[in-house]
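Here is my example:
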Amino acid sequence: MNWQLVTQLAQQHGVVPQVYRATGDGSVPDRTLVRQYQASARQALWLTAELLRILKKFEEAGVQVLSYKGPVLAEMLYGDVSMRQFSDLDLLVCEDDVSAIKRLLAEIGYECGLKLTPCQQRAYLKSGYEYTFDGPHGRNLIEIQWQILPRFYSVQFDVTDLFASAIEATVNSVPVRTLSYEDLFLVLCVHAAKHAWARLCWLCDLVELSKRREMDWAAIEKRVRSLGMQRIVAVAFLLAQRLLLAPLPEALERLVASNHAAEAIASEVISRLAAGEEYDLESPAYFRLMLRSRERWQDRARFLWRLGVTPSVGEWTAMRLPDPLFPLYRVVRIGRLAKRIARR
């Protein structure tokens, strides 16, 4: 056994705690795995304490947020915050509360990593989905999200509905509001797809979540169809079957059965994983993969249109235009994309 490679892959795929436990709590020749587990556990404990401190600050200010992934997901799925690797805290918020939350985080030492003009901020709230915050202990420690995905992906969750169906979990015996099991399932599926299913930890989370008896599979199937993400879900569980030998939930058998497009994507992802290759998330190959992962032509058309004409931070940085000419950033966006495609 090449333990150095095992340790390297465990870190790459975010499964150091699972590998550590599977080896008898670190009884392996390579002590690097033990050190990585200990570092992951320390980070998880510190981020858990920081999450509770931040949530208390928001509660005192009367601002509602939903904490998901990070410590909450680790506690829900594994019963132990140290049994899941994470390096930041994800908080879902209402768009109207973003300014107040930025101010509250600044009061406890966190600074937004993205500096935008007022005009750019208004545009970014409509087309983007998150702000990351740096703190005294590191960069990108907190992600404040008012949408699940950027708008161009064309998977539109209603954040108001996510708040309305939220449930209460506990972290270190403290009640914390989080996504319902059904909403969490959908969110984890699209998150894995957005990153081209490149890490095993995302599949592990989905498999563990699918074991929950509280899951309303009829509601999930209905939501999956309405959001046009049947193929996304099918790919995730085909990968879980092939890479983790995980049984397919009975409720998903009909959705996955004979889904040839999903099978082709899963095979491609596995080939890339075996070769140690990852998608460049700004490459034509990646965007083709995202198109192929959608079953409805309307979603593919919206994806292409929004991707092509929606300016981003890259355009605002590449060229400075006065506010009255802000709509011209669409032209800048089209030009930059055309240049990038021609170069490739």
In short: The first strand starts at residue 66 and ends at 68. The first helix runs from residue 3 to 12.
